[in-house]
Design brief:
Elements lengths: L1 E6 L17 H12 L8 E4 L3 H14 L6 E2 L9 H11 L3 E6 L3 H11 L13 E5 L9 E6 L2
Parallel strand pairs: 1-4, 2-3, 2-4
Antiparallel strand pairs: 1-5, 5-6
Helix pairs in contact: 1-2, 3-4
Length: 151
């Protein structure tokens, strides 16, 4: 399995709710730089948080890649979601090439849990950072972190 974990681009500091924060112009540029890293990758699915900034990030990647399937919005990719729940859901999907678009602290904890089996030292995921992981299954401590690209 190959898993890419993308944190949303820079977002507005304020909105009516955290879930409604939108990407800034700079955030859109960041996302497009990260999307370039995914060109030519055989993605099967793009999964995104329901929050506006993650939806906008996923839409930009979707368009930049010319991805043929719609982005799938899932409720288990919000900032405070449990990384183990995400791992369980990814395992249940049984898909080999996945892009996950979400938020901190989830993305840092998820990458750390998959690569090291622990959340004690979250991966450094700034806005629009893209982590690439590989492994037989999406299980805690059993995936290899190939790289984290900072835009």
């Amino acid at each position: 399995m190959k898993l890419w974990v993308l944190r949303h681009g820079e977002a507005e500091p304020r909105a009516n709710t955290d879930a409604e924060r939108r990407l800034t112009g700079h955030g859109r540029e960041q996302v497009l730089r990260s999307a370039a890293q995914l060109l030519g990758q055989p993605l099967q699915v793009i999964l995104a948080s329901p929050y506006v900034r993650a939806q906008q990030t996923a839409a930009l990647v979707h368009e930049a890649l010319g991805f043929g399937k719609p982005v799938q919005t899932v409720p288990w990719l919000t900032p405070d979601s449990d990384p183990q729940t995400v791992i369980d859901e990814l395992d249940r999907l049984g898909i080999e090439q996945v892009l996950v678009v979400s938020h901190q602290p989830l993305v840092g904890n998820l990458v750390s849990l998959l690569a090291h089996g622990s959340r004690q030292h979250p991966a450094p995921m700034s806005t629009a950072s893209l982590a690439e992981l590989e492994g037989e299954w999406p299980l805690a401590g059993l995936m290899t972190l190939q790289r984290i690209v900072q835009p």
